[in-house]
Amino acid sequence: MKKRLVVYKRSDEPPVSSTNSSFTVRNVRYGECLKNHAASMGGYAVDGCREFLASAEEGTDEALTCAACGCHRNFHRRVVETEVVQDLVTDIEDYILVVATNI
Predict the structure, then answer these.
(1) The model's pTM
(2) Given pLDDT bands bounded at 50, 70 and 90, which one contains residue 23?
(3) Is the torsion defined by CA of 63, 66, 70, 71 positive or negative?
(4) Would you say 80 and 59 are in contact if contact means Cβ atoms under 8 Å apart?
(5) Would residue 102 be called left, alpha or beta, if left means φ above 0 and alpha means ψ between -120 and 50 degrees?
(6) Phi, then psi, of 79 in degrees rounded to 5
């Protein structure tokens, strides 16, 4: 297997100022198991586990073990889904105006 160096360029541009307040929500899930069970013999074989299922409640040591294949969560492919969420109220003056008119 050939190693490859990946370099990401950071943006030097300042963030765009906006009156809209928004934030990013990141959802992390763990997909198929990538553990090579034949590494000690010089081969390559995965167990076919399609998705990480926690063995116990979150916050315990057992929560890091997959109930389907028994592997640690680190062996499963990490999938990060990002979503930009914008607030409905973008300016405090607009909020005060809306509250004042509804009284």
Answers:
(1) 0.58
(2) confident
(3) negative
(4) no
(5) alpha
(6) -120, 120
Q: Which amino acid is at 91?
A: D
- The domains of the chain are located at 22-101
Q: What are phi and psi of 100, to 5 degrees?
A: -65, -35
Contacts of 36 (CB under 8 A, 6+ apart): 44, 45, 46
Tell me the C-alpha distance between 102 and 96, whole Å.
10
Spatial separation of the C-alpha atoms in residues 103 and 35, rounded to whole Å: 61
Amino acid sitting at position 15:
P
CB 69 within 8 A of CB 47: yes
What is the separation of C-alpha 50 from the centre of its chain, rounded to a whole number of angstroms? Answer: 17
d(CA 88, CA 94): 11
Model pLDDT, residue 3: 67
**Tens digit of each residue's pLDDT (9 = 90 or more) over 62-101:** 999 999 999 999 999 999 998 887 765 555 555 565 555 5
